[in-house]
């Protein structure tokens, strides 16, 4: 005997998956943003924790990188709080800030490679989670 699921039951499952991925993205963005905040504080307070790369093309003062990470990390944390409410503006901003932070972390790979690559992966997972969920499944 074959069992079929009702359209209502399938719709509830899709909505649960969509909201689950949005919550996943919110948590990932929050954690990544906090890590970037810490990285910014480290760059501002203690330049010695970073590698010295004298011939790097995108060379900035490490204190400048610290302020950049601090500012973007703070924005990421605020936007992640908006994602918990499933606000459309937060989804759009989250994808944008995560994309910018991937670029920022790519540019700082020579200074702190493991941390940069880890954050690139976390921001990539955030973008993926927000992009695979269609807007109509959130409102179903």
Automatic annotation (TrEMBL):
Pfam families attached to this UniProt entry: DUF7144 (PF23636)
Alphabetical UniProt keywords: Membrane, Transmembrane, Transmembrane helix
Domain DUF7144 positions: 22-135
InterPro entries: DUF7144
Keyword Transport: no
Transmembrane segments: 12-35, 65-85, 92-109, 115-133
Protein name (database record): DUF7144 domain-containing protein
Native source organism of the sequence: Streptomyces paromomycinus
Species classification: Bacteria, Bacillati, Actinomycetota, Actinomycetes, Kitasatosporales
